[in-house]
Specification:
92 residues, mainly alpha
């Protein structure tokens, strides 16, 4: 295990101390939790970036459309056929 030392503003230190006391955790545990939260956020951003072109390809622009797509009983083939029909209607 490694020790890290860095400077922060007084208000950040007070918040950090308050969080540790409130959660009955060591400051090291609070810091580890913060790192995990940051890593999770970073992972979610990567997933969102990877999903964006796929959703665009499927014509999904809103959360409601995504939920509708996920909850549908249609097969993948049905969805692709509808997508093709929808796309051809836009062209003509």
């Amino acid at each position: 295990m490694t020790t890290i030392s860095f400077s922060v503003e007084d208000e950040i230190k007070k918040s950090f101390d308050r969080w540790a006391a409130r959660d009955k955790k060591s400051k090291s545990d609070v810091f580890r939790d913060m790192v995990k939260t940051y890593e999770f956020s970073e992972t979610m951003d990567n997933i969102q970036q990877a999903a964006a072109p796929i959703l665009k390809n499927l014509g999904i622009e809103t959360e409601d459309q995504l939920y509708e797509y996920l909850e549908s009983d249609e097969t993948y083939e049905d969805r692709i056929r509808h997508q093709r029909l929808h796309s051809s209607n836009k062209k003509g």
